[in-house]
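Support reply, case 0932

Customer input (verbatim):
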Amino acid sequence: MIAEGLPHLWALEFLSDGRMLVTEKAGKLHIVSPDGEATEVTGELPEIDFVGQGGLLDVALANDFETSGKIYFSFAEKREDGNGTSVAAATLDPEAATLSDVSVIFRQEPTYDGDKHFGSRIVPNEDGTLFVTVGERSDEPIRDQAQELASALGKVFHITAEGEAVSDNPFVDTEGALPEIWSLGHRNVQSATLDGEGRLWIVEHGAKGGDELNKPEAGLNYGWPEVTYGINYNGQKIGEGITQSAETEQPVYYWDPVIAPSGMAYYEGDEFPEWDGAFLVGGLVAQAFVVLHMDGDRVATEERVPIDARVRDVKVGPDGAVYAVTENPQAGSSTIVRVSQAQ
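Our regenerated output:
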C-alpha cells in the first residue's frame, strides 16, 4: 500500500518524476509522493457539483505537459437548471502545487437535474486531440438520447485541445448532429485507454448484467438502450429485450454478472511480462482489477487480481508496477495500492 486515509479519490495520473496527480471527488486536486505524502494543489476550480456520482472526476496530462504544464480534468459542472459533464484545461506547476489558467473547453448538453452517469474519462491522443467519454444520465426517458445525434448524452467525443470538433469526425457534415461525436449508443463509460496501436478501447457499465468492452469506431452505434445484454435492476427487460440488431455493434466482450468497471490501462512494462499487451480494468463490484489477455482484437482469457476493495482507477506506473485507487464511499476515503511481482 502506497497511501491510505486519503479523501475519496476518483482518478490518478503519473507525473514524470513518479509522483501521482489525483482527483478528490469533492473538488480538489492533490499530488501524492511515492511514499504516500499528499499535498493539496491550490488554485480556483470551476463550480463542481459534488452530488451522487458527480464531482471532480478524471484528470489527464497533455502530451506536451513537460513544457506546457497543461492538464485536462472532467467534472460534474453545476449549472442553473442542473448539471452535466464538462472538461476543463489548466496549467499545473507540479513543484509549487498550483493550478492556473483554468478554462472550461467542452460541455455536455443538455443540462439535466440528476446525480448519475456522468462518465467520464479523458484520453489524450498522440496528435494532441482528446477522446472524452460521458454517460447518458441513467434516468428514463432521458437515457434514450444516447441514440440521438443532436444530444451529447451517451457518447464518445473526439475534440481538439481547445475543445472543438476534430475536422474529420464522422458527423461533421450531418445536419443537426453534434460535430464532436465519435460514437453513440453508450451507457456510462468510466473506463477508457489507448492500445499499443493508438486505438481507443472502452469498458462501459451495463445495467444489471451487460458491462461491455468495446473498441469504438467512428460513426458507429453501440446500441444502448435499445440493444443490451443487461436488464433493469427490477428484473424487467430493457426496451424490447434484444441483444443484437443489424444497426448496432456487438461488444467485443461482456460480463454478466457485472464487474462494475472504472479505470483502465494498457499494460506495457517489465514487471509483469506475462501481461504485455493486456488491458487492466478496475472493478468496483469485483473488488479487483481484471486482466484481459488479448488475441488480436478479441479477449482470449481474463484473470482477476483481488484488491478486496472497490477499484476506482488503475494505472501502470513508470516502474512497471500496477497502481490501483480504491474507494470507500461510506467513509469518504481512498487508498492507493501498488501491485508488483514481489507480492
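We compared this against your earlier run and they match. Two observations from our side: The longest helix spans residues 65-68. The two ends are 11 Å apart (CA to CA). Please reopen the case if you see a mismatch on your end.
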